[in-house]
Write a sequence for this structure.
């Protein structure tokens, strides 16, 4: 699941603090703001270009992508934020963290083993008092007290820095469609923004709600539930993805015996489980493999393009 991978990435990232920004995966990162800026590397330093023209000269030891008009950059192992004109708007005084970017106007920052949130003027809305945290989503952000980055108890703050849901959960994701997946004693469920348990903590794993459905695991099988906790797709698969263009990728079997197919929202198998590898539908087609042969298929399972043998 994507959130499990995120937790692993966070853990690994702390061991890589101070390394080259290659830990960001690519030397060139596209931004989400206008004008589009791309980071580039020159003589082991990073800067930014727009349409191939240098806008911010290569001068930083590390450079993240721009989000909400600001980018996280570093010199001498300290990080801060610059704007798209290259001006330092928040001094380079923080330590690197994978979730240090602006979302809904706020960023989680770290000094040593303490975390807090700042606004775009660099003002702290919370002091650096927490042992971890997430990003703002739907007006709330998770914070952690006690333990290390993957321990302690998690709750939520609002944009005034006030704790609105006490730190009591072993794990907490981000709010999505008004609910958030939380865990206690290895059991997962969902709460609302008032902290009320909406779906009991009874699952082995749970992911965010997307288009009214969430992936859950029970007895080592996966399925989908709705926001009332009702099972929408039976918890019977060895793997399942969210619906994409009306179909969901599912798998039964493990390892070499595992085969993929596609179901509709009535849990009807519309494309047989016969594929060794498969991806979600996008633009009316999906990539699949059988015996190392790659194809694109349509929503009826018909081959529309053969890639290789």
């Amino acid at each position: 699941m994507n959130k499990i991978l995120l937790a692993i990435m966070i853990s690994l990232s702390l061991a890589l603090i101070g390394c080259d920004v290659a830990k960001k995966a690519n030397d060139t990162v596209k931004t989400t703001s206008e004008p589009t800026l791309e980071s580039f590397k020159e003589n082991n330093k990073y800067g930014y270009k727009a349409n191939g023209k240098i806008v911010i000269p290569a001068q930083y030891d590390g450079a993240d992508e721009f989000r909400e008009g600001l980018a996280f950059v570093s010199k001498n192992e300290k990080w801060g934020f610059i704007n798209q004109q290259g001006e330092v708007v928040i001094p380079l005084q923080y330590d690197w963290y994978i979730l240090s970017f602006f979302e809904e106007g706020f960023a989680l920052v770290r000094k040593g083993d303490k975390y807090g949130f700042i606004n775009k003027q660099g003002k702290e809305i919370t002091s650096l008092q927490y042992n971890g945290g997430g990003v703002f989503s739907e007006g709330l952000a998770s914070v952690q007290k006690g333990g290390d980055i993957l321990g302690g108890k998690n709750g939520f703050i609002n944009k005034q820095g006030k704790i609105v849901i006490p730190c009591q959960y072993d794990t907490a994701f981000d709010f999505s469609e008004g609910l958030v997946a939380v865990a206690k004693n290895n059991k997962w469920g969902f709460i609302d923004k008032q902290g009320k348990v909406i779906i009991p903590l009874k699952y082995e794993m749970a992911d965010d709600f997307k288009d009214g459905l969430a992936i859950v695991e029970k007895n080592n099988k996966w399925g989908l539930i709705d926001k009332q906790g009702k099972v929408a797709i039976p918890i019977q698969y060895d793997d399942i993805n969210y619906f994409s263009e009306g179909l969901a990728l599912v798998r039964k079997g493990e390892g070499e015996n595992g085969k993929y197919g596609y179901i509709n929202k009535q849990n009807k198998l519309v494309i047989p489980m016969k594929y060794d590898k498969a991806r979600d539908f996008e633009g009316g087609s999906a990539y699949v493999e059988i015996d190392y042969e790659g194809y694109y298929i349509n929503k009826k399972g018909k081959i529309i393009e053969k890639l290789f043998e």
